[in-house]
Specification:
Strand order of the largest sheet: 2-1-5-13-14
Number of helices: 21
Largest sheet: 5 strands, mixed
Distance between the termini: 54 Å
Strand content: 5-15%
Radius of gyration: 29 Å
Shape: globular
């Protein structure tokens, strides 16, 4: 349904001139929720306490309402305010004070008139940002109530906004340093009402489309629809088609997240969300909707850019500044922002990824390294090798979502310890392949290790040797939902589906190295999680200095739980799948290897008390074989961490209180007496292997069923680690396929 039909019954006559005269479809039916009156009688025994409770609630509500009304009425008159004027350009500096670049003002901002803005862009913006724009005034009370209710259901956490287009325009024009406070929102609401009384909807929508931020590219933010059209499609706003207008309309909500140059998949999904809203509200018909959804992004990057030192870091910091202070202040406020990136550590990270022996540009594997300070969440290094030329604005350290392989098993282990499971006295059968029944029915789940056999072993040993079959059973016993909860609380932001396959690395979306480094940092910091940040402090022209939002971390694990996980992960480096590739010579170093199915992604995520670092190696655009996590990603981690620590080896502090753990029993677990007791079939296999190995047989790699040191002969079916591969410009032939398993290490 065109814009003109949205408010025909209630909009003032002055709005009629701006509404298109065409009609493309019926308006989507609005379903209103009705309050249901109670049907049960109120017994006299509870009438009094209920009445008292209601009275108290009314009194509290009245006090809150009076306070809110006072704040609302104390807002300054709009006539006393002026839009933020152009000022000194803001700049961004590295941690050592060296200049990274300037945030330039209006370089690609070109305001246009209402007539020069296509109807499709206006409709798309209204559909996704404020569907009742032409029906309500400055505030959408129904939207406020709906958002407040969802926030209440989320435990007070803000999960849905209720700002109208008018409120967003007020924020862009008049509020220099918007803070997430009730006072600011009440003031903003008051100013929005005044703005709506002074200007028609046409003026408000035009100015919004000329001031909204549409993403940062090469250090410059596209401000306004005209700049966005030129940035992403090399054309004027007036020339935008339906698909292009929908993509642009979806950007202001999260310009960095939906930037099509940084994440085309996210940009496409957001564009399709806008198209769905347009179709549901009657702006486009079914044919237009289908054709638009099936089309690609058709990006044609514009040329209005400027080279800046460390472009990836600049974009990251600038977007965080905009999110914190607002576009106008960042563009014109003369800010001096200092990053958390340490140039010395950044150089060491870049040198480390450069030693990737399987990496080469234009078609070969790439590598990304992210490192954070566990105590603060400060990002100290983000390094990435070159991939395809078309991905020049892509940093694998914080933008690449990849399958984590067995590095995700750490969250399963942590969830088990949180539930009181003792990894040393809980045993599982690791024989591969194994068929597992899934809760709720469905097809059986066949899980494979990298090597046949396995035997019964403890969770401690299964972690050190990364045994898929055992972790699949553990995930079922702990519960996929608990694993998801643990991973998210520790710092994983990728969408998780709480399915058993995730426990051994089978994610639907994937994680970034920065996410993994931040999540493992929770263990390094004794169970306290900090959100990662790239800003350390901001200096204002008046001399005021504001420290970055390194908020007090949130404790998600006890010190004892974090230490217990760390103790086990130390074994991965000393005697497990990371042995020989990862140790930096410090006693306090822990981590986990990861290899996705078919050896496509190779990971090593590890930490010391000083730094938590994640390394990923893989093909950027294909699922070709890359290598095992230990020998492929491990040396990069080792090189960086050794250089970063410079021989400084602080120890993990043993907490005063350790968790109360006990052996876990389930249909999947086995008794300790079964450990190291192979079946007759396994013994026959072992007997057949004695003597000499088959020609061409590899010595393990990142094997799921264990790795013994120095070729020692033991009763369990462990194998020796493979030797360190010789450097080569191209990936060597991959080992045999893992089969039905999700993660071979």
């Amino acid at each position: 349904m065109p814009l003109g039909k949205l408010g025909c019954a209630a909009a003032p006559a002055r709005e009629a001139a701006i509404r298109p005269l065409y009609n493309r479809g019926p308006m989507a039916t609005r379903i209103r929720r009705r309050r249901r009156k109670p049907h049960h009688p109120v017994w006299h025994k509870i009438a009094l306490p209920v009445g008292v409770l209601v009275a108290l609630m009314l009194v509290a509500s009245g006090i809150a309402a009076a306070w809110a009304l006072n704040i609302y009425n104390s807002a300054p008159p709009l006539s006393s305010l002026k839009p933020v004027k152009k000022g000194t350009s803001s700049s961004i500096y590295a941690a050592d004070g060296s200049l990274i670049g300037f945030i330039r003002s209006n370089n690609i901002r070109q305001p246009v008139t209402f007539k020069e803005l296509p109807d499709t862009l206006k409709e798309a913006t209204v559909a996704i940002e404020d569907k009742n724009f032409y029906e309500h005034g400055a505030l959408d009370y129904e939207g406020i109530a709906r958002a407040a209710w969802k926030d209440i259901l989320a435990g007070g956490k803000p999960v849905q906004g209720a700002s109208t287009i008018t409120q967003q325009l007020v924020r862009n024009l008049y509020i220099q340093q918007p803070e997430e406070t009730i006072e600011r929102k009440l003031t903003e609401a008051h100013l929005a009402v005044e703005l709506e009384e002074k200007h028609p909807k046409r003026w408000i929508l035009t100015n919004y489309l000329n001031t909204a931020p549409y993403g940062t590219v090469e250090g410059q933010t596209a401000v306004g629809a005209e700049a966005a059209a030129q940035t992403y499609f090399s054309k004027t706003a007036e020339e935008l088609g339906l698909e292009e207008a929908a993509m642009i309309a979806g950007l202001p909500q999260a310009p960095s997240e939906y930037n099509p140059f940084l994440d085309p998949k996210a940009a496409t999904a957001r564009r399709n969300e806008v198209l769905t809203a347009m179709h549901d509200q009657g702006y486009i018909d079914a044919v237009e909707y289908r054709d638009a959804r099936e089309s690609g992004l058709k990006l044609e990057p514009g040329d209005k850019y400027r080279v800046i030192h460390d472009q990836f870091l600049f974009d990251l910091v600038q977007q965080q500044l905009i999110d914190r202070y607002g576009l106008n202040t960042v563009r014109n406020g003369g800010l001096k922002a200092y990053t958390t990136i340490d140039p010395d550590l950044q150089q060491k990270a870049e040198e480390a990824v450069s030693i990737c022996y399987v990496c080469y540009p234009e078609g070969g594997p790439a590598a990304g390294l992210a490192s954070v300070d566990p105590e603060t969440g400060a990002i100290v290094a983000l390094a990435s090798t070159e991939g395809y030329a078309s991905e020049a604005q892509f940093n694998y350290a914080w933008q690449a979502h990849r399958q984590p392989g067995s590095s995700f098993k750490t969250f399963v282990l942590t969830a088990a310890i949180r539930e009181g499971i003792d990894p040393d006295t809980t045993y599982y059968n690791g024989t591969s392949p194994m068929t597992l029944e899934l809760p709720g029915g469905g097809a059986p789940w066949v899980v494979n290790n990298a090597e046949p056999g396995g035997g019964t072993m403890s969770l401690d040993e299964a972690t050190v040797h990364s045994v898929n079959v055992i972790f699949a059973q553990l995930d079922l016993d702990v519960g996929p939902e608990e694993v998801t909860k643990t991973a998210e609380e520790m710092g994983i932001e990728a969408p998780l589906e709480s399915v058993p396959a995730e426990g051994i690395g089978g994610l639907s979306y994937g994680v970034t190295p920065l996410e993994m480094a931040d999540a493992y940092a929770t263990l390094a910091n004794g169970g306290i999680h900090h959100d990662p940040t790239a800003i350390s402090k901001v200096e204002f022209p008046d001399g005021r200095v504001e420290e970055a939002s390194l908020e007090d971390g949130k404790r998600v694990l006890t010190e004892g739980q974090a230490w217990e996980v760390t103790r086990i992960l130390e074994g991965v480096i000393t005697s497990g799948t990371g042995a020989g590739y990862t140790s930096i010579g410090c006693g306090a170093e822990a981590g986990k290897t990861g290899t996705s199915e078919d050896l496509s992604d190779a990971w090593f995520v590890g930490y010391t008390p000083m730094y938590s670092t994640a390394v990923w190696v893989g093909h950027p655009t294909t699922r070709e074989a890359t290598g095992y996590g230990g020998p492929t990603a491990g040396p990069i981690w080792q090189s960086y961490m050794a250089a970063a620590q410079e021989g400084n080896c602080p120890q993990f502090e043993v907490p005063d209180t350790l968790p109360d753990l006990s052996a876990y029993n389930s249909d999947h677990t086995r008794s300790a007496s079964e450990a190291y007791a192979p079946s007759e079939e396994e013994l026959e296999v072992e007997d057949g292997k004695k003597g000499k190995k088959k020609d061409g047989e590899e010595e393990g790699g990142e094997a799921e069923d264990g790795e013994a040191e120095d070729g020692e002969a033991e009763a369990d079916p462990e194998v020796t680690p493979e030797s360190t591969p010789d450097p080569t410009p191209t990936p060597s032939a991959p080992p045999p396929s893992v089969g039905g398993g999700i993660s071979p290490g």
